[in-house]
Amino acid sequence: MQQTFPIIAPSILSADFAHLGQEVSDVVAGGADWIHFDVMDNHYVPNLTVGPLVCEALRPVTSAPIDVHLMVEPVDALVPMFAKAGADSITFHCEASRHIDRTLSLIREHGMKAGLVFNPATPLAWMQDVLDKLDLILIMSVNPGFGGQSFIEGSISKIARARAMLDEYEERSGRRILIEVDGGIKPKNIGAVARAGADAFVAGSAIFGKRSAALYAEVIAEMKKNAVLGRGQN
Predict the structure, then answer these.
(1) C-alpha separations of 3 from 9, 117, 134 in Å
(2) Would 1 be classed as within a structural domain?
(3) pLDDT per residue over 165-199, tens digit each?
(4) Parent domain of 122
(5) Which one is catalytic: 38, 41, 67, 135?
(6) Could you say which of 26, 33, 41, 182 is catalytic?
(7) Is 98 helix (H, G, I), strand (E, B) or coil?
(8) Is residue 38 flagged as an active site residue?
(9) pTM for this entry
(10) Looking at residue 55, what DSSP letter applies?
(11) Is residue 44 situated within a structural domain?
C-alpha cells in the first residue's frame, strides 16, 4: 500500500451507490490514494452497509489499495472473505475481537496490512502489546456508525499521543506504523490533524458530497495542500 504523505482515502459510505464503480474511478483519477471501505453489521454499530461481494466487484475497477474498515463483531470469519475479494488492508475495532493478537496475525497471514481502530473513548493502551503486528492504526474522530458527523476536537490530542508512542516504537524497531484518522475530516481541519501526526485521512461527505468528478479532484488537491502545510513540509 502507498505510504507517501499525505494519503487521502475517500470513504465510499458517502458515494452514490447507484454509480459506485464510476465514483471510485473518479476519485482515484482525482488524486485519491486509497479507497476506504466501511463495513457495518447493525450489531457492533447501529447501521448496515456492504460486504465482501461489493469489494470484489470494485476490485477490477481500480488498482488503488482498498482499505477495509470492519465495524463488525465478531471479526475473524470475514478476514479470508475480504482477502479473497481483493482487500489490501483490514482494520478492526479493539473491542470487537476477543483475541486481538490472533486477529492481527490472521489478517497478515492472508497477505493484507493489519490495523486496530480506536473509538473516541478507546484507550491507546490496547496497542502496546501488539505493535509488532500492526501496520497502521485508525483513530476515529467521530463515534462509528454513520457518515456526515462533526469532528471531535479532542481527537487532536489523542492523535498526538499516538504519534509519540509510535515514533518511539519506530526508533527502537526501524518500522513505521501509519496513523489513519476517520470522521469529519475536511479541508479546513486536515492541517491540524496532519500537524498532530496523522499520515492518512479518511473523508466521505467532504469529497463525495460534491457530486462532481471535477470537484472531487479540487477538494482532494486542497486537502493534500493543507495537510502538507499543516505538517510543515514544503
Answers:
(1) 12, 18, 14
(2) no
(3) 999 999 999 999 999 999 999 999 999 999 999 99
(4) 7-231
(5) 38
(6) 182
(7) coil
(8) yes
(9) 0.96
(10) H
(11) yes
